[in-house]
Amino acid sequence: MSAPDGAAIAPLDALVGDYLQVLANERGSSAHTLRAYQRELHGFAGWVSDSYGPAQSVDKIEHTHIRAYLSTLYDRGLSKASAARALAAIRSWFKWLARAGYIEQNAASLVSTPKLPKHLPRVPSIEEMNRVVDTVGDDAASWPARDKAILEMLYGCGIRNAELTGLNVEDIHWANEAILVHGKGQKQRYVPLGDAAAMALRAYLAERSALMAAAGSGKGVSTPALFVNLQLRGLGKVGGGEARLTTRSVGRIVKRIAILRGLSSDVHPHTLRHAFGTHLLEEGADLRAIQELLGHERLSTTQRYTQLTTSQLEKVYDRTHPRAR
């Protein structure tokens, strides 16, 4: 592939901007992903300009430059995980640069990822999760019906926090007992809606309708958002305010209820997603089916749950088998 006109002299920041546009418009990357890539790539581009001059062209960047940049991250006290995230963004950018013809050789492909310690998340037991979800009350929730529905959806359907907050009322397909989930990269999937989750949703929707009617006072105020904030902040404002619950709010809701019900303080919405996958596997579900339910692009991602369960089995073996003592 021949390089586009002006490729050799295109400013690095401009090329970063072009790539971010591709992520946003063509790949449908989330706002979180865009912010992370913007931070990492502008950081790298700024370091290259400071170290080798603002005229440094992208086709002159070698793998040694990238390794040197990673070293500066370590010198600043960043962890291996942070360096790995920076390298992942740089690799993705260089892959696009190669495809677009800005570079002939992908220097980033020659840089190995820092070895990271494998931290398997601590997953609450089935009994612990049932206790948390079944006992949502006024003592732990500002809106018990809504917050119980949130927990049922996160644990009962295994969806991501951003997928939960992105749900609209029309995404609930009652006749098919399923929900339409809008996942990463504009991908969609249907997830079964269990009886417990359906009951919680119906109870919440009844209260939601009453709240919307009171707020509208005959003005026809409405929002497509399934989960809304209690005060309906932003609803009806210029610019299309939807009163949609944020991922940060969901995180606070989950943590508050979990702690009050005796779970660890490091519980967050993704913990419930891990619990969904792990408990399915423990109860005999096929790994390929779990992959589809979770919306994982690669089976290797789902296989982390196999590692999780294996570690649990090893503990049982060490504690109970006579030859393990």
Which features characterize this protein?
13 helices; 3 strands; 325 residues; mainly alpha; single chain; three-stranded antiparallel β-sheet
Structure description:
With 325 residues, the chain is mainly α. The chain contains 13 helices and three strands. The protein has helices at 12-25, 31-52, 63-75, 80-100, 126-134, 144-157, 161-165, 195-216, 247-260, 269-282, 287-294, 299-302, 304-320, and strands at residues 172-173, 178-182, 188-192. It has a three-stranded antiparallel beta sheet. Helix 1 (12-25) runs antiparallel to helix 2. The longest helix is centred in the first third of the chain and has 22 residues, at 31-52. It is globular and about 60 Å long. The termini are far apart. The mean pLDDT is 86.
The whole-angstrom Rg is: 24 Å
The number of strands is: 3
SSE ordering: HHHHHHHEEEHHHHHH
Percent of residues in β-strands: under 5%
Poorly predicted runs are: none
Overall shape: it is: globular
Short description:
With 325 residues, the protein is mainly α.
Task: Explain the layout of strands and helices.
Layout: H1 12-25, H2 31-52, H3 63-75, H4 80-100, H5 126-134, H6 144-157, H7 161-165, E1 172-173, E2 178-182, E3 188-192, H8 195-216, H9 247-260, H10 269-282, H11 287-294, H12 299-302, H13 304-320
Antiparallel strand pairs: 1-2, 2-3
Helix pairs in contact: 1-2, 2-4, 3-4, 6-8, 6-10, 10-13
